[in-house]
Design brief:
The protein has a six-stranded mixed beta sheet. It is of the alpha+beta class and 188 residues long. 41% of the residues lie in helices and 25% in strands. It has a single domain, classed as Heat Shock Protein 90 (2-Layer Sandwich). The protein contains six helices and six strands.
């Protein structure tokens, strides 16, 4: 996968398969520390110790439709190619957390890509899932929580075309804003 947002989409689809109702995605870019951290957590049914020990193996999958499970192993490899670290924890009935720390400036670190498209695709296809997305760029943070949006919408479904367009634009503008604010703060 040539964009990190596609890895995020794949991991979130695993969360949905695990009956998660809340998926939290945190991205933290700390330029001075040269780190690009992606954390994805869910409240799904989790994994037992045996499954957890095998989940990074590309020839292991719990799906019955194919014999390989490349998602987590490819994400781990993408992280480690940059000199980063990867970890996954899971507890049955509690959920799963994945943390990947990339070297921010490494030539092999894929770009984030179209994260707003990734998040809106998840919301459109899985209206029963809530997503909390937090993106920090040095000292500036953008925050999105579908639970708050649903509360404001009332009877209007989050999958409504105009709502999805608004969410997509809000995320895109929010991410541009935190980078711009940080650059303005540094130049003072």
């Amino acid at each position: 996968m040539n964009e990190l947002s596609l890895h995020i989409l794949d991991i979130c689809q695993n969360s949905i398969s695990a009956n998660a109702s809340l998926i939290e995605i945190k991205i933290q870019e700390i330029i001075d520390a040269n780190t690009y951290t992606i954390e994805i957590s869910d409240d799904g049914h989790g994994m037992n110790a045996k499954t957890l020990s095998q989940v990074s193996d590309p020839f292991f999958t719990t799906r019955t439709t194919r014999k390989v499970g490349l998602g987590i192993s490819l994400f781990k490899m993408a992280c480690e190619l940059t000199g980063g670290t990867f970890s996954i924890t899971s507890k049955e009935t509690i959920g799963t957390s994945i943390k990947a720390i990339f070297k921010h400036d490494h030539v092999d670190r894929a770009p984030l890509g179209d994260i707003e498209e990734t998040l809106t695709v998840l919301l459109m296809n899985e209206a029963g899932i809530d997503i909390r997305y937090v993106h920090t760029y040095n000292h500036q943070t953008y925050y999105f929580d579908s639970r708050e949006v649903k509360q404001i919408l009332g009877d209007v479904p989050i999958t409504d075309y105009n709502v999805i367009l608004w969410i997509k634009n809000n995320i895109k503008e929010g991410l541009l804003s935190i980078q711009k604010e940080e650059k303005n703060e540094v130049s003072r």
